[in-house]
Design a protein that fits this description.
15 strands, Class-IV_PLP-Dep_Aminotrnsfr, 2 domains, D-amino Acid Aminotransferase, Chain A, domain 2, 26% strand
C-alpha cells in the first residue's frame, strides 16, 4: 500500500505531497516537529506530545495551524489512512511560505504536515538484552534545545559520527565536560548506590516525553532519582547508563567511546526501568511484546 501524507488540509499519496519552495521550513528551518509512538493502533503519551508541540510553536511565535483537538483528529486520520498498528507518527509545522526574508512575514499561513510509517518496537526489546554503544561529540548547538525545532543539522552530523564508529548514538558534551543529551535521546546514568541521574530540565536539553514518563515511573517504583549534570567520567564510573526517547523507550549503554560502562553488560536497574516502561505502554495501548 502506498503511504499517505497530510499536507495543509489534504490527504495525498506521499509521492505527490509537496510544500511551497519558499516555505520557511525549507529556507530557514523555521518550524517544529513531534514524533509519536503508535502501538496497537494507539498513540502513546499523545497529550504530552500535543502539549509540547503547542509549547514549541508558542516559543517561536508560530501560529498554531489548528486546535489541539483538531490535531488529534487529523493524526488519527493519518494513522487510519496508512493502516498503522505499530509505527511512528511524524508531525511538523512551519511558519509557512513567504518571500525569502529573515524577519517574520506579516501574513504567512502555517504549514502543517503529517506522515506515518510502520516501526517494529520489538527490535528494542532485543537491544535491551545486548546493550548499545555510544560516542561523544562536542556540544555545538544553539541554546534553546528545549524547543523541538526542525533545525537538526548538528544532530544529523552527530548521528553520522556514531554510525561511522558503528555506535548507536552520540552524546553531546559541554565545554565543562558535562553531558547534555544524545543526538535524538536523553542521557542517563545509574550511580553505584542505585540512584538514576539525568540532566535537569532546562533550555539546555529537550524535555523528552519518555524522559518524563520514566522519571514518574522511577519515583513510583521507589528508585532514587536525581536531576543533575553528570560528566563522561561520571558515566564511565557509574554502575550503568542508558538512553530514552519515543522510539527508544529504554536502552542500556554498555560502552562510551570504546570504554566499558560498569561491567560492560546491561544492568539490573536499567532492566527494571525498561520493564516498568513496557508495562506503562501496555496500560495505555494494550500492546504486548
Amino acid at each position: 500500500m502506498s503511504r499517505i501524507a497530510y499536507v495543509n488540509g489534504r490527504l495525498v499519496p506521499i509521492a505527490d505531497a509537496t510544500v511551497h519552495i519558499e516555505d520557511r521550513g525549507f529556507q530557514f528551518a523555521d518550524g517544529v516537529y513531534e514524533v509519536v509512538a503508535v502501538l496497537n493502533g494507539a498513540m502513546l503519551d499523545w497529550p504530552q506530545h500535543a502539549a509540547r508541540f503547542g509549547r514549541s510553536l508558542r516559543e517561536l511565535s508560530i501560529t498554531a495551524p489548528m486546535s489541539e483537538a483538531a490535531l488529534s483528529i487529523v493524526a488519527r486520520r493519518v494513522l487510519a489512512a496508512n493502516r498503522i498498528r505499530d509505527g511512528l507518527l511524524y508531525v511538523q509545522a512551519t511558519r509557512g511560505a513567504a518571500r525569502r526574508d529573515h524577519p517574520f512575514p506579516a501574513h504567512a499561513v502555517p504549514t502543517l504536515v503529517m506522515t506515518a510509517r510502520p516501526f517494529d518496537f520489538r527490535v528494542r526489546t532485543a537491544q535491551q538484552k545486548t546493550g548499545i554503544s555510544i560516542v561523544t561529540q562536542p556540544e555545538n548547538r544553539w541554546q534553546r534545545r528545549d524547543i523541538k525545532s526542525i533545525a537538526l543539522l548538528p544532530n544529523v552530523l552527530a548521528k553520522q559520527s556514531a554510525r561511522n564508529a558503528r555506535a548507536f548514538e552520540a552524546w553531546f558534551v559541554n565545554p565543562d565536560g558535562t553531558v547534555s543529551e544524545g543526538a535524538s535521546t536523553n542521557a542517563w546514568i545509574v550511580r553505584k548506590d542505585g540512584t538514576i541521574v539525568t540532566h535537569p530540565a532546562s533550555e539546555s536539553i529537550l524535555h523528552g516525553v519518555m524522559r518524563g514518563t520514566l522519571l514518574a515511573l522511577a519515583r513510583e517504583h521507589q528508585i532514587r532519582v536525581e536531576e543533575a549534570p553528570f560528566t563522561v567520567a561520571d558515566a564511565l564510573d557509574a554502575a550503568e547508563a542508558f538512553i530514552t526517547s519515543t522510539s527508544v523507550p529504554c536502552l542500556p549503554v554498555i560502552s562510551i567511546d570504546g570504554n566499558p560502562v560498569g561491567s560492560g553488560v546491561p544492568g539490573p536497574v536499567t532492566a527494571r526501568l525498561a520493564e516498568a516502561l513496557w508495562a506503562e505502554v501496555e496500560r495505555q495501548t494494550g500492546w504486548r511484546r
